[in-house]
Specification:
By secondary structure, this protein is mainly α. Among the domains are: about 60 residues, no CATH class; about 120 residues. It contains 19 helices and no strands. Helix 8 packs parallel to helix 9, helix 9 runs parallel beside helix 11 and helix 17 packs across helix 19. It is elongated, with a radius of gyration of 29 Å. The protein starts with a helix and ends with a helix.
Amino acid sequence: MILIFILITNRLRYESYKARKKSSKTKIDIFLTSILFSDLNEDEIKSEINQFKKTIPFKEKWCKKIILNEIINLNENLKGEITKNIHLIYEEFDLFIYSLMFLNNRKWYVKSLGIYQFQTLEYIKAERYIKPYLNHKNKRLVLNAYFGLISLASDNLELLGEYPNSISMKSEIKIMDILYSKKPPMPTNLKDWIDSKNPSVVKLGIKFMVFYNYLKETQPILNLLQSEDKTIRHEVIVAVNDLLIIGAEQVLIDQFDKEEKTNKIEILKSLSAIGTQKTEKFISDLLINSIDKDLKLEGVYTLNKINPNYLENAFAENLEIRKMANHVKDPYI
């Protein structure tokens, strides 16, 4: 009987807790939306928030978590003038202190959650609290600190040139997402990134140069084709295409036989954008001498893009190339 009583009591408490959370969330949603869409000045907003705190279990951590999540959600989904008071609301609900509690936690992933909150809310005042973690022993926390800082202020992009660790493809994509969404000014030290001893910074530097259409010094980019890292060479080859570095045609042709298949295919794609008669001759020899069907097919794509008439006439008697050419012109054949 005692066990049954305990189970029933616990169940009732849990249901009561769920009901309180649900009721509080509804009140919070309505209040935050009304405040954001109101014409109240700062003092009036502060007064409204102080009054609202008395209507919810504000001191409970779960309640603050709901408020913070709702503020983050609104900030992500609303744009423009409507969000001008987001930071004021965040501060008046004492959530800056709440986020700092995460940042001061001993566990790295909890610290990262605090950084994420500042980052998502674009809370620039948190910049000085995040910077110390650039030198933390935990590499994942360090990367999250970099993410946070470059999200908060455009001049922090320059910090990436000094990043000491490897950057995964997933993290590269996150960084590029920040770049495309924020469209910050080009880092003043960008030209130095491709001289970094960190291959991840070099690759990121090339990607940034493509984004900013950096054509002041293309030779240093092409020099990286001598890198021992094939992923760096891959980025260079892609950059030739994206930046339309015309002077790279002979360099890519000379590099072709030194590369593995993936980079060879990328070279052919880049030559299709910048190729001239030199490329026609090079592709012609490739189609005659190569036994790799993938390379030959990519070569046909390249030649068709540069000079379809040459492709048509030079290989009129070659059944294999004619079939590939027909497929290139009509993929359903």
